[in-house]
Specification:
Layout (H helix, E strand, L loop, with lengths): L5 E3 L1 H7 L5 H13 L9 E4 L5 E10 L2 E10 L6 E2 L2 E6 L5 E6 L1 H19 L6 E5 L3 H10 L7 E5 L7 H10 L4 E2 L3 H5 L4 E4 L18 E4 L19 E4 L10 H9 L9 E2 H6 L11 E4 L4 H16 L1
Parallel strand pairs: 1-7, 8-9, 8-11, 9-10, 11-12, 12-15, 13-14, 13-15
Antiparallel strand pairs: 2-3, 3-4, 4-5, 4-6, 6-7
Helix pairs in contact: 2-3, 2-9, 3-4, 3-9
Length: 313
């Protein structure tokens, strides 16, 4: 008899997640990646026939496990359907360990990766943060960054937030001092860090509103060439990403900046792997900083592995 793999749905994952220090897991895996102790292949985008959507495969190997997350983007009337499932396998036995719903895990590892970038790239004296987006992903971003600096001002903007009493109440619960801005540009004014936390495929912030020396972080979505900031911003910003070997070929604004604005991946100052391992320099003062994550398979493997350990315990 062999032990069957665990199968965890979204509810089971949600019960186990409080036992996992997601930011710690992201910090550890990026340091391992920077030291050559983990492997991150490029993600692959597969288009469905007849323009019905696509799916991205996120692969990774490290921490004693390997596996993949599959994230489809299904075009449907009324809006796209996006799901995600991760399979985790043992590097010792080659057997599957777990299949789990990755929806909540994707939210948490995305936010924790941004938080790690804020910790490593924002100025030590950063005191004002702007959050563009107000849903679950944006709320997770705030939860993971709130203890990283002595934030004195938190501004939040998303379309419709001003008229959504329920969402405002949720923000008051997690950030009592949050100010709800009238626009993304108002939120970003005088900010030390601007976190773009949307699923938009087109820019959500006028780059002229970004203060000199501010850090802008971006996640975007898995739609083709999606980008939350104008590609030309890369020409003036000090650009970093999660992993320089794979991200520039997939991140929408980087692809477009290279195609249309004379930018190239050689202009990247570094990535989270190098920053976490101490092998690349941080940004210089006085110029804006841009950080882009696309979501790495290693992030999914690391957090799935942590969930597996919690479930096994």
């Amino acid at each position: 008899m062999t032990t069957p793999p665990l199968v965890l749905d979204a509810a089971a994952v949600a019960r186990l997640l409080p036992q996992v220090d997601v930011l710690h897991e992201m910090r550890r895996l990026f340091a391992e990646l920077g030291r050559g102790q983990a492997v991150q292949p490029p993600q692959t985008l597969t288009l469905f026939p007849e323009g019905q959507g696509d799916f991205i495969t996120y692969l990774g190997a490290g921490g004693g496990a390997f596996g993949a997350k599959l994230s489809p983007y299904l075009l449907r009337t009324g809006g796209p359907v996006i799901t995600a499932w991760t399979v985790l396998m043992s590097m010792e036995t080659g057997r599957p360990l777990m299949l789990c719903d990755s929806g909540r895990l994707t939210t948490e590892r995305t936010a924790a990766t941004t938080a790690l970038a804020v910790d490593l790239l924002a100025s030590e004296g950063a005191a004002r943060v702007a959050i563009i987006g107000s849903g679950a992903v944006a709320q997770a971003h705030w939860r993971h960054v709130q203890g990283l600096r002595e934030w004195q001002e938190v501004r939040v903007f998303s379309p419709g937030l001003a008229a959504d009493d329920g969402k405002q109440a949720r923000w008051r619960e997690i950030c009592p001092g949050a100010v709800f801005a009238a626009s993304a540009e108002e939120a970003a004014r005088e900010a030390d860090a601007v976190m773009l936390c949307t699923s938009s495929g087109t820019p959500v912030l006028d780059v002229s509103a970004v203060p000199p020396g501010a850090l802008v972080t971006s996640i975007s979505t898995n739609a083709a060439e999606a980008h939350e900031i104008a590609p030309e911003f890369l020409a003036s910003a000090q650009a970093y990403c999660d992993y320089r070997e794979t991200t520039p070929a997939s991140a929408g604004e980087m692809v477009l900046a290279a195609r249309d604005h004379g930018w190239s991946a050689e202009q990247l100052r570094g990535d989270l792997a190098g920053l976490a391992a101490g092998t690349c320099e941080g940004p210089e003062p006085g110029r804006p900083v841009f950080f882009r994550s696309i979501g790495l398979g290693l992030e999914d493997i690391a957090i799935a592995n942590a969930i597996y350990r919690a479930a096994s315990a």
